[in-house]
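ok here's ROK family transcriptional regulator:
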Amino acid sequence: MASETGLSHASITAISHDLLAQNIIVELAAAEKADTRSRGRPATLIGFNRAIGCAVLFELDVNRARLSLVDYGGVLVDRIEYPLTPTTFAQMPPAEYLAERIHLLQSRNPEAVLRRIAISVQGILDRDGQGLKWSPIAHLANNPFGQKLSGAFDIPVTLYKRGRLLAEGVRWLDPALHAASVATVFVGSTVAMGMTFRGQIMGRGDEGATEFGHMNHSPNGALCRCGMRGCVEAYAADYGVLRTAYSVPETTQPAPAVPPHEYEGLIARASSGDRTATHAFNLAGRAIGFGLSRMMAVFDPTHILIVGPGARAFHLMEQEIRSAMSGSLLCRINGMPEIVPHLDEKEPIFRGLQMKTLDEIDQAYFAGLQ
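and the structure:
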């Protein structure tokens, strides 16, 4: 800690005593000494007071809702997962749906002191950040469910775009990327991107995310869920791959949701040599590659991480991605950035959501204590 902060050992000891007195950190049980010959007073082992507060973390996407309860020490206490369908939020308003599940989590963990609710969402946030102007999740937009939840539980509720959480989570999961310039691309039910520039989250406003999936790839091309035509997502998201693989016309309305097993089946078909499935993933890779090539005209990452269900299809898209990116001037001069698939998309999103929320708890409740 002294090395990281530049503070003296005496200052850190004094601050630690203050935090102990305020019950923010607690003294842990003494462990056996590894070296009895060490000099000085024996070390005092300290850790977060896990019981001082908890946060509810919601991850929403087209196919599922995952609800997690984490304590102040960052420990996962409880988790519930539910499937989402295109009619879920038509049958029950989002605020009621989320509140019902939070109450269930509280009934299972009555000792939890809830201090924050944070929600990962897909789409475009409204100005006050309490709802969405548009979302691929049916019946979720144009409803201030964040504000309603905050009123129902009398605690702050924060909505985060998935792209920002991808960028944030990757920094925590891989210390080697903490200060790097990284583009993290989610490929699955949608296509999204989060970016860090030398370790700093960047993007539209302070959201740290872009609308990469809705970058135009082919003017007047395939119909996207957003209603526009030719978006990267219209070719690379699961519904775009499904549409191409079954030779459905590009102007056909996209499927509102693609069951995970359908997409996994397409990956298996392409991996076994099925031509139509292979062609679909080739087009997906080409759309992602050209999108990345355009992005690199304004942002030059050292690493590109592919996450989400599409990471399992990376071997089917990689050649087209690299081929499209090779036409970028920066790639020709600086070489291709490192492109790596990350097979568990849930972990960077969850980790980003967790760390942002715990930091908010720190700032709101404890940072101002004297």
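+1. The chain has three domains: 2-48, 52-164+348-366, 166-344.
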